[in-house]
Amino acid sequence: MLVKLRFILVFFCLCGFLNGCSKASENKDQGLLKDLKKYTRNYNRVNITEKTKKEADSVGRLLLSVANTKQQRDVLINYIFYVNDNRKYIDELLIGSKKSKDIRDEGYANYLLANMFNKTFQKDSTYYYLTKSEFLLSSIKDSIVLQDVYVFKAVLLLNDKIYTEGEAQIIKSMALNRDQKSLRLKYTESLCLTDALKGLEQFEEALVEADRCLKYLEDPEIKKFYIDDILRLNKISVYTTIADIYLKQKKYIKSKELIIETIKQNFTKNKSEYDPILLSKLLLFLAEVNIELKQYDQVEKSLKENIDVQLKYNNLHDYYSAKTLLAKYYFLVHKEPSALNLVQEVISYAKENKDLAIERDALLVLLAFYKNNNQDNLNRYLELNHLIQNENIAAKNMFTRMSFESDDLLKTNKQLQKQKRLVIKIAIGVFTLAIIIFFIILFRQKVKEMSLIKLFEKDTHKYYDSILNIQNELSQVRILERTQMAKELHDGVLNRLFMTRFLLMQLDQKSYVEHQDSLINEIKKIEEQIRDVSHTLIKDNEFKIKEFDQLLEDLIEIQNRNQKVKFSLFMDENISFDNIDIKYKIHIYRIIQECLQNVHKHAKATVCKVSFMFINQYSFRVIVQDNGVGLNTTIRGKGLGLSSIESRVKLMNSKLIVSSKKTKGTKILFKIIMDL
Where are the transmembrane segments (predicted)? Predict the structure, then answer.
């Protein structure tokens, strides 16, 4: 009892310690998230350098290392929105929100995915993720983020010049959270509504909204959302829109004055990467105003500056729009060849890239100033008008289709919720049924005991069958062992007998007395070897080799009794035979023995050298080389000659290399890797 109580106390102490560690870790993360949030708010995304990019990447990695909490995801959303919208960060937000079952953050992640795809002009993917975001946010009635979705949809529609539907989306956004709307969102809604009204040619209303945008930008509260550079660029954007409205109202003097004042007051020395783009837009409007006022002095310069900027940023649509206006200017100042060249260049680009609006504007210039092919140009102009209208209809249809799919998705979700509840009920029923079946099976266990006994008997029969199979396999092993012994007799005993017989044939009466003792010793060794093989067959012992290098030297000495061939042995002193497996020693010895016999029988050589060459501490190379007549390496001899050598080499996981040239001798080589 005392032990149990002590265990419980230790357990609670440990839990308290872990809880304290957890709280300390949470406090540390909260401090870090506070710093990261401050960084994202102060990040200057206008003037980006390589240094700031590296810093931003480091901050992103640090943010991903923080535990997945609501606060972490909020900071991550700001980081993606203001600093780096790389796909990996959005995916992490999506994964984290799904793990936490946070539908709001999941909806925001889909919104950010739509924003990412919009930057690469993938409209279908953009609409898909926007619709998904709208569906998720609508399901929890989160009107705050839903406002951003409506504004985003409005921007997409306005970019496609679908002004009526764009205005409708802005009005939907404005209707939400009127009392709790942030100044940033109010400004964004007002700016989008200005563009929509301008596109619908409701110019006076558009000017009122543009004036409201400027008031929002002058409000000190807006600095909570935008740094100074972003505020300046937004002001330039609003002034540019107002100048364009004046231009469309044919208030050319007011438009010109506003453009000049905007350029003078808002373009600083420390330019951002967006300054040249905005400045080029103003210069384009200024050139257009000067053409209408017939003040041609600065028109060509302004347009060429605009063209250079658009080309630098690869904005080809605006690039060729500026060239179209430049062509109009050339017609007005009677530079017809230059004008025609520009118009043809613009039309060629437009046809190649299917830019219908650019081609239509270029044809309009031709119809106004150039009378040749007037009927063909007019027909093409009317055709382009028709095609552009069809494009607008197609874009409207796509938006309608996506809206329909959104409604359909909501209905599908409701059906899935019903199905989910039904599945839960079915699961409970199945679980209950499973418990009942379990008890039934448990009750029937006694009935199955007899069948288990029968199965046991079958297993016993299988056991005896397996014993018989093992005995058969043992018989096969014995047969294999006998084959190996036969090979041993061939390679060992017969080769020695052959050598003895060969020496006897060469001896005369005088030399017989000299070699009598050595021949008797050789026959004794053959007897001993036969006895060893016999003992191996009876006792099943391993064939052991001691002092392997001495055995090799004895073999060479025996071969040198034949005075027709001079045999020599070289063994690198770095080679140690102690680490070689006993079986490998046997194979090496028999291979060399067989090679030397082949030299005696077939080579007609005068010199034969056996070399053991050191490679490294784990391997060496064996070479047997003579200066005889050579042999045909493409033919393997029958019986247990070269084929026997090759089989032994394979048993050592090596490869036999035989090289020979006629009258220049034969070289046999194989490599040994020590089995440590």
Answer: 422-443
Dist CA 233 CA 257 (whole Å): 19
Per-domain boundaries in the chain:
23-41+51-141, 158-226, 227-266+273-304, 544-676
CA 488 to chain centre: 58
Q: Do domains 227-266+273-304 and 544-676 have the same CATH topology?
A: no
Query: Per residue in 168-190, pLDDT tens?
Result: 888 888 888 777 788 888 899 89
Nearest-angstrom CA–CA distance, 213 and 239: 10
Quick check: 249 and 203 in contact, CB under 8 A?
Answer: yes
Q: Ramachandran region of residue 431, left (φ > 0), alpha (ψ -120 to 50) or beta?
A: alpha
Measured distance CA(16)–CA(20) in Å, rounded: 6
d(CA 338, CA 330): 7
**φ, ψ at 608 (rounded to 5°):** -140, 130
The residue among 548, 543, 534 whose CA lies nearest residue 589 is 548
On whether the CB atoms of residues 172 and 154 are closer than 8 A, the answer is: no
In the numeric block, the tokens 């401050």 are attached to 38
Eight-class DSSP state of 405: H
Q: 458-508: per-residue pLDDT in tens?
A: 664 565 456 546 556 555 645 666 666 666 666 666 666 767 777 677 666
Q: Residue 666: which H helix or E strand, with range?
A: strand 666-673
Please provide the DSSP assignment of 79-100 as one string: HHHHT---HHHHHHHHHHHHHT
- For the CA atoms of 100, 105, 106, 107, what is the dihedral angle to 10 degrees? 150
d(CA 157, CA 421): 39
Q: Which of 94-103, 110-119, 141-150, 328-337 has the lowest mean pLDDT?
A: 141-150
Query: Between residues 546 and 47, which one has the greater pLDDT?
Result: 47
Bridge partners, 175 (sequence order):
none
Which residues, other chains included, contact 250 with Cβ-Cβ below 8 Å and sequence gap of 6+? 292
Please give the DSSP secondary-structure letter assigned to residue 250: T
CA distance 252 to 565: 116
577: helix, coil or strand?
A: helix
Please, are residues 618 and 676 in contact by the beta-carbon 8 Å criterion?
A: yes
Cα 503 from Cα 521, distance rounded (Å):
13
Which single residue is written with the structure tokens 């409970």?
Answer: 428
CA angle 659, 663, 668 (to 5 degrees): 25
pLDDT tens digits, one per residue of 415-449: 777 888 888 889 898 988 899 998 898 888 877 77
Closest CA relative to residue 556, chosen from 499, 621, 618? 499
Q: What are phi and psi of 47, to 5 degrees?
A: -105, 85
Mean pLDDT of 391-420: 70
CA pair distance 501, 488, nearest whole angstrom: 19
The CATH label, of 3.40.50.2300, 3.20.20.80, 3.30.565.10, 3.40.50.1820, for the domain at 544-676 is 3.30.565.10
C-alpha to C-alpha distance for 294 and 297, rounded to whole angstroms: 9
Report the alpha-carbon distance of residue 634 to residue 655 in Å, rounded.
15
Q: If we measure between CA atoms, which residue out of 627, 626, 645, 629 comes closest to residue 637?
A: 645
CA distances from 201 to 159, 160, 214 (A): 16, 16, 20
Q: What's 227-266+273-304's CATH class?
A: mainly alpha
Q: Cα(3)–Cα(676) distance, rounded to whole angstroms?
A: 53
**Alpha-carbon distance 389 to 149, whole Å?**
27
Using CA atoms, how far residue 333 sits from 69, 227, 287, 288, 304, in Å, is: 67, 45, 14, 14, 16
d(C-alpha 65, C-alpha 24), whole Å: 16
CA distance 491 to 483: 12
What are 609's strand-pairing partners? Answer: 568, 625
Task: Pull the structure tokens for residue 117.
Answer: 């795809």
